[in-house]
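Quiz preparation item.
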């Protein structure tokens, strides 16, 4: 009986150490760089050089999205984008999804849109690149300015390259949540064209989740005129 008890104790110890190791690795996932907003929609990170490792780079298309954390927030998305992932049809509705901090408000005269909503349900990896639509692990709360002025020009750059060449692009987007805040301060975006070793597409930027003229409480998503 003592021998069996010792074996059981060893098995439980191994299980505990494995679980502890997995928890440690998850807690060590890379976090976005912290950037200071100075008035531009985005800024370069590391002189614009993407940080993909040799092991990460592939010409085989795939998509990987982090599970939501305990606060319901989306995490890093890592993909190898290519023509095989791009959708053929129009995007469906995502109105039923409410990312963390989605405290919607209208600002006529401040936001140039109709209706002048402050927030969009922003894809980390755009639908036009991935075909991912109502994937909660791919959506965060972002301002109209962040979505249209900040992210879309870079997404269009990648989409145009893939459509023109049929090649693949490594692509990573990391939302930047501070502490327990429910709205990301921004996202870190990286892209690297695979077949031509970055000659077609290569960037590493931080896009700020701001709206000129509006003050945002990133803890809750509540907002007001500055």
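Solution:
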């Amino acid at each position: 009986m003592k021998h069996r008890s010792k074996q059981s104790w060893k098995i439980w110890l191994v299980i505990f150490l494995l679980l502890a190791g997995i928890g440690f690795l998850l807690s060590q996932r890379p976090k976005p760089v912290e950037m200071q907003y100075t008035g531009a929609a985005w800024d370069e990170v590391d002189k614009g050089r993407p940080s993909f490792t040799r092991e990460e780079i592939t010409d085989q298309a795939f998509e990987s999205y982090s599970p939501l954390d305990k606060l319901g927030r989306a995490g890093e998305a890592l993909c190898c984008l290519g023509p095989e992932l791009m959708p053929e049809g129009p995007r469906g509705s995502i109105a039923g999804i409410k990312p963390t901090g989605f405290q919607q408000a209208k600002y006529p005269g401040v936001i140039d849109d109709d209706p002048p909503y402050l927030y969009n349900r922003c894809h980390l990896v755009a639908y036009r690149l991935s075909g991912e639509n109502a994937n909660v692990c791919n959506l965060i709360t972002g301002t109209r300015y962040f979505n249209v002025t900040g992210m879309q020009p870079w997404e269009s750059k990648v989409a145009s390259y893939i459509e023109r060449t049929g090649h693949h692009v490594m692509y990573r987007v990391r939302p930047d949540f501070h502490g327990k805040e429910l709205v990301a301060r921004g996202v870190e975006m990286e892209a690297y064209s695979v077949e031509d070793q970055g000659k077609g597409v290569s960037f590493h930027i931080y896009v700020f989740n701001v709206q000129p003229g509006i003050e945002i409480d990133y803890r809750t998503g509540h907002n007001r005129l500055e």
